[in-house]
Amino acid sequence: MDALEAELEQVIGLHDLKLQLRKWAKGMLLDERRKALGLKVAGRRPPHMAFLGNPGTGKTMIARILGKLLHMVGVLPTDKVVEVQRTDLVGEFVGHTGPRTRKKIEEADGGILFIDEAYRLMPLQKSDDKDYGLEALEEIMSVMDTGKIVVIFAGYEEPMKRVITCNEGFSRRVTKFFHFDNFTTQELGEMALLKMRNEDMESVMFGFKLHKGCTADSIAKLLDSETTQKQRETLNGGLVWPMLINARENLDLRLRLDCCDAEELITITMEDLRIGLKLLST
Q1: Residue ranges of the AAA+ ATPase domain (predicted)?
Q2: 79 vs 63: CA distance, rounded Å
Q3: Could you identify which of 94, 110, 222, 263 might form a hypothetical disulfide with 77, taking C-beta atoms 3.0 to 4.6 angstroms apart as the criterion?
C-alpha cells in the first residue's frame, strides 16, 4: 500500500479513480492474507476497463500505475503496459489485421493492453466492409476471457459510448468505466509544481526551479488569463510541459551572457511562464 500511495502522490486530481485503486489493492492484499491462513476463497480477476475522457487527462499515466499495482499484488505476472492505437492493429488489406493484432496481444501477455482512441476500431457505418477495425476488436475480445491479459479501452467519452452500446461482446466484457474529467487550472498549477520537483537528470528541466512567486494559485490565475477554455479542454495536462519548456527558453533569452548570479541562472519567473504560454497560441 505504501508503494501504491507513493505512485498516487504523483497524480493530480482523479480522486474517485484513486479510491478505486486503493480498494483493489487492499482487497487483493487481504486475499493474500486469507490464503496464508488457509482460507479457501475465490481468485480475484482484474476487470477489463474503459477510460473515458479528453486527451491529457491522465489516462495513460493511470494505466501504467495500474500495471505496477496489479503486478505488485501478484494478479499479473508483469507490470508491462503495451500502448496501441488503431494504426498498430489494423492492416490495409485482407489478412493483415489478424496477425498484427495478435502480435500486440502477445506483447501484452501477462500485462495490460492499453488501446487509445479505441472507438476508431468500430466504423460509423456498419456496412463499410473495407474497414478492418472490427476484426481487430473481435480478435482482442477473444482473449479477454483468458485471465492472461487486462485490456483498457480509452478515448473521448461520446464516441466510446457508441462503441459500448453497439457491441454486445464489448459491453459484457468491459465492466469498469472511469471518467477522466478535464483538469482545473488549479490542478494544472499543482501539476507544474510537481513536475519541477520531480524532474530527473535526463530531463531538460533538471536543475531549474520556479521562483517562489510561482505558486499553484498564481499559475492557475495565469492559465485562466492566458489560455482559452478550448485550449485547456483540448490539451489539459498537455499544456504544462510545453509551458515549462518555453519558459526555460525565455529565461535564456532574457539573461545576459555575462550573468554570474547562480540563482538568476536557474530560476524561472512568472513572466517566463506567461511568455511560455503565449508561445503556445502563436
Answers
A1: 45-175
A2: 10
A3: 110
Closest CA relative to residue 92, chosen from 136, 139, 132, 140: 132
Q: What is the pLDDT of residues 233-270, one digit of tens each?
A: 889 999 999 999 999 999 999 999 999 999 999 999 99
The half-sphere exposure of 241 on its side-chain side, counting CA atoms within 13 A, is 9
Q: Where are the beta strands (DSSP E) in the chain?
A: 48-53, 81-84, 112-115, 150-155, 174-180, 209-210, 267-268
Cell of 91: 492492416
Structure confidence by residue, pLDDT tens digits, 192-217: 999 999 877 788 899 999 999 999 99
DSSP at 51: E
Give the number of residues written for the chain: 282
d(CA 124, CA 133): 11
CA distance 196 to 210: 7
**Residue 60 near residue 54, CB atoms below 8 Å:** no
CA geometry: angle 230, 233, 239, nearest 5 deg? 95
- Type of residue at 150: V
The span from the CA of 215 to the CA of 223, in Å, is 12
Residue with cell 526551479: 209
Answer for the pair 1, 14: CB distance below 8 angstroms, yes or no: no
Q: In angstroms, rounded to a whole number, what is the distance separating the alpha carbons of residues 173 and 236?
A: 30
Q: Which of 50, 38, 47 is nearest to 70 (CA)?
A: 47
β-bridge mates for residue 267, sequence order: 209
